């Protein structure tokens, strides 16, 4: 039964008749902790849930036919406050919010013969008073919200009158643009010949394979997105000829082999757009289709939809880190909505997609808004997800932007790429990304979330950038948002969920900004966020100075795997030439400390485990004496004597005058690198890649190594980096002294100096001026008059 909770709008569900003495019937729950690459038990024991109710996820159990979930306010479970039985998936999001306070949860399973397992261990979690209400309706209620008639995606039958009116009014420019697209499609229809399969003997990842693989995607998009555009425009009052042309394209594509060249498992880059563009066209043009044509469409999409579903379910609910699967699930959801009650399995596709969204999405982050795969994949995947957000809002009345992640998602590009930034940070295909490339997605996010900071970011890049097409038309109804410059925000931010810190001096303009980007990620080096942990990048005054090197020629090529996935491609440290473990979830790091202020930024990461057996420890401390000096202190320990190589990468050849005098240049920006310790480093520089990218990729970059001369089990690097403009002459004076606890560094600033104590003994106390504290770093700034102006303790 239901009873009111303590707070307005909250419910607690109690069950009648549950008997604690009910015994397990010979089945035992597998409660083993999560392994790398697994989603893990959620909420984890001791966690605080950002939402109420939380999404519950548990390890799938061998032989399970269904699950029962129980929640209680006491660990003894003497009184059950919530129970859900007959759960199909290894996850569940309740339909009502939980009251604030302490909770415990457990689950059990039943097999096909009805035998019940023992209960799992109890995991405790907290629902704070500020938790966001984010329940998931029960299946019947949720599916019942979807219209029985068409259209069902992006717009509903009841929306048509208002949208047609606005197509003649304030949205006429957008409608006219659609008409121009459609007239071009009528004049020159897309080629509807079925795309080719790979010829016998085609080598996967070869240039021949690549041309067919991506060409088939383009052919699919051309035909079916063209069809969707024609059908949608006709719905708004466009020519009947648009609808008939859409129907011809749709039925031509329906003749393609569903498991052939555009099949999901054969080529998912063609199979995914086939699925969602086909579904959109079908629902937009539905009234023009004959019963036989509808039957043909259903037959085709049943095959394609089931192929997607079997690939995704149930695996994605426990192993959700396959990159492509993180868009495939909501594309399947679109198909399910379009064909609900017309394909027998369609309701299950929708229910699965909604369970992914409620319980296992997004995966490359936590609630703080980052994205492990990097800004290029963030832009691509979140942009596509916003389609599903639009569909959910209209079809099932669920607002994705109520979810905590989406309330912070726009801060990731703001801190990573202040306006005018060249370079997209860590992650695949980010090297040449500019901040303006995010404008279109930020236009959507700012409008959907109503966030003034994000709207300011959009305006700083020239104002809103509509996606155009039929989706852009629908989004034209969103309200305007007042911009708010980020002057009330700190200039630096740590995204702990992805283990990245962006240390900035100016969020308003990259030309005035110096930025250090640091990575030490709990996601390891998996997927498209493969760069080494404890690596860093340096951007200054709108230029890339110290970069992550290489360029992806094709995913999985030799250059991609053996150079870009290797630690040597980043500003990091190799051990006897050896890399951190490449491209795996287990090669994790962790940001252990972060601090930001006007005078100092500080971040520390630990990444020893990322090297596997090569290292026992790798702590990297970065102290940013804003805006002109970066102090990097590295502590490494290995199980056997080793040599250590400190890598730097730049666009142009570096000028080397010795280990304390290395100049990096890029456009109007410069930086001077000084390796203060250890002494007698061997400096080498090359522009060669090993292995190089494919010949069609023309790329020149420079790589410098500072190598220790003799093997040792421990190594400590102390490095200074001074960014400056090309027309400036920065101070160069710096000294280092070995002390009983570690190092003392003194360096001149443009006005005054900074003194830094670096602790090489765990737990030792440091003193400087009248500052005495246990910590890894102590720093004091002195003005030109010799007076202390700022101090910092990193601990």
Bin the strand percentage: 15-25%
Do you know the CATH topology of the largest domain? Beta-galactosidase, Chain A, domain 5
How far apart the termini lie comes to 51 Å
Radius of gyration: 29 Å
Query: Number of folding domains?
Result: 5
Strand order of the largest sheet: 18-19-20-21-28-25-24-23
Text of the CATH class of the largest domain: Mainly Beta
- Corresponding CATH architecture of the largest domain: Distorted Sandwich
Give the tally of β-strands: 35
Biggest beta sheet summary: 8 strands, antiparallel
Q: Which word captures the global form?
A: globular
Task: Describe, in plain words, how this protein is organized in 3D.
The chain has an eight-stranded antiparallel sheet, with no helix packed on it. Strands 3-10-9-6-7 form a five-stranded mixed sheet, with no helix packed on it. Strands 12-13-14-15-16 form a five-stranded antiparallel sheet. It folds into five domains: 1-138, Immunoglobulins (Immunoglobulin-like), CATH 2.60.40.10; 150-313, Glycosyltransferase; 362-488, no CATH class; 490-730, Beta-galactosidase, Chain A, domain 5 (Distorted Sandwich), CATH 2.70.98; 731-795. It has 795 residues and is α+β, with helices and mostly antiparallel strands. Strand 29 (734-738) and strand 30 form a beta hairpin.
């Amino acid at each position: 039964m239901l009873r009111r909770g303590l707070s307005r709008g909250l419910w607690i569900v109690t069950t009648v008749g549950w008997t604690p003495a009910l015994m397990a019937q010979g089945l035992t729950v597998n409660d083993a902790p999560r392994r790398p690459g697994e989603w893990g038990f959620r909420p984890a024991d001791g966690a605080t849930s950002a939402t109420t109710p939380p999404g519950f996820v548990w390890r799938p159990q061998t032989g399970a036919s269904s699950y029962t979930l129980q929640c209680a306010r006491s660990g003894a479970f003497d009184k059950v406050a919530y129970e859900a039985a007959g759960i199909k998936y290894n996850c569940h999001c309740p339909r009502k919010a939980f009251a604030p306070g302490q909770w415990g949860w457990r689950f059990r399973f039943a097999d096909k013969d009805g035998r019940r397992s023992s209960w799992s261990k109890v995991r405790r979690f907290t629902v704070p008073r500020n938790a966001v209400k984010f329940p998931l309706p029960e299946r019947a209620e949720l599916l019942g919200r979807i219209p029985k008639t068409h259209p069902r995606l992006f717009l509903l039958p009841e929306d048509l009158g208002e949208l047609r009116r606005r197509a003649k009014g304030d949205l006429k420019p957008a409608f006219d643009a659609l008409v121009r697209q459609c007239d071009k499609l009528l004049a020159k229809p897309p080629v509807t010949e079925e795309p080719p399969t790979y010829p016998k003997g085609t080598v996967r990842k070869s240039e021949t394979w690549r041309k067919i693989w991506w060409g088939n995607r383009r052919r699919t998009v051309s035909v079916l997105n063209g069809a969707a555009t024609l059908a949608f425009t006709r719905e708004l009052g466009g020519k009947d000829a648009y609808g008939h042309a859409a129907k011809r394209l749709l039925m031509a594509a329906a003749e393609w082999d569903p498991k052939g060249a555009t099949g999901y498992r054969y080529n998912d880059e063609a199979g995914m757009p086939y699925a969602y563009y086909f579904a959109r066209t079908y629902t937009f043009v539905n009234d023009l289709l004959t019963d036989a044509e509808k039957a043909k469409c259903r037959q085709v999409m049943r095959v394609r939809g089931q192929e997607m579903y079997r690939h995704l379910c149930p695996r994605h609910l426990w192993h959700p880190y396959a990159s492509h699967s993180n868009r495939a699930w909501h594309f399947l959801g679109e198909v399910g909505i379009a064909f609900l009650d017309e394909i027998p399995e369609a309701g299950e596709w929708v229910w699965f997609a909604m369970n992914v969204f409620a319980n296992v999405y997004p995966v490359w982050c936590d609630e703080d808004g980052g994205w492990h795969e990097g800004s290029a994949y963030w832009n691509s995947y979140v942009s596509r997800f916003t389609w599903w957000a639009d569909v959910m809002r209209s079809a099932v009345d669920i607002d994705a932007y109520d979810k905590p992640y989406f309330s912070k998602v726009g801060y990731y590009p703001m801190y990573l790429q202040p306006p005018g930034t060249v370079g997209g940070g860590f992650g695949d295909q980010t090297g040449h990304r500019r901040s303006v490339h995010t404008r279109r997605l930020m236009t959507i996010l700012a409008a959907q979330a109503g966030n003034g900071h994000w709207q300011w970011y959009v305006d700083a890049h020239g104002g809103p950038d509509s996606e155009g097409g039929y989706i852009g038309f629908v989004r034209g109804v969103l309200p305007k948002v007042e911009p708010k410059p980020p002057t009330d925000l700190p200039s630096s931010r740590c995204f702990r969920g992805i283990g990245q810190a962006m240390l900035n001096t100016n969020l308003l303009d990259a030309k005035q900004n110096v930025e250090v980007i640091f990575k030490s990620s709990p996601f390891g080096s998996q997927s498209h966020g493969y760069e080494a942990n404890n690596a860093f990048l340096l951007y200054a005054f709108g230029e890339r100075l110290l970069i992550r090197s290489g360029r992806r020629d094709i995913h999985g090529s030799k250059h991609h795997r053996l150079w870009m996935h290797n630690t040597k491609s980043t500003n990091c440290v190799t051990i006897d030439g050896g890399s951190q473990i490449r491209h795996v979830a287990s090669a994790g790091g962790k940001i252990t400390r972060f601090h930001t202020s006007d005078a100092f930024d500080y971040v520390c990461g630990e990444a020893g485990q990322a090297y596997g057996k090569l290292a026992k420890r790798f702590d990297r401390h970065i102290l940013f004496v804003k805006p002109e000096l970066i102090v990097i202190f590295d502590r490494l320990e290995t199980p056997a004597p080793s040599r250590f190589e400190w890598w730097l990468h730049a666009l142009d050849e570096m000028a080397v005058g010795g280990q304390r005098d290395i100049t990096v240049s890029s456009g109007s920006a410069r930086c001077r690198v000084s390796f203060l310790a250890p002494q007698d480093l061997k400096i080498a520089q090359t522009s060669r890649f090993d292995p190089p990218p494919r010949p069609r990729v023309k790329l020149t970059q420079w790589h410098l190594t500072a190598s220790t001369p003799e093997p040792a089990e421990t190594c400590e690097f102390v490095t200074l980096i001074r960014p400056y403009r090309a027309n400036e002459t920065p101070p160069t004076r710096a000294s280092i002294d070995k002390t009983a606890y570690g190092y003392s560094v003194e360096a001149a600033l443009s006005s005054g100096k900074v003194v830094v104590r670096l602790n090489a003994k765990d737990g030792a106390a440091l003193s400087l001026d009248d500052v005495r504290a246990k910590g890894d770093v102590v720093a004091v700034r002195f003005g030109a008059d010799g007076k202390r102006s700022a101090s910092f303790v990193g601990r």
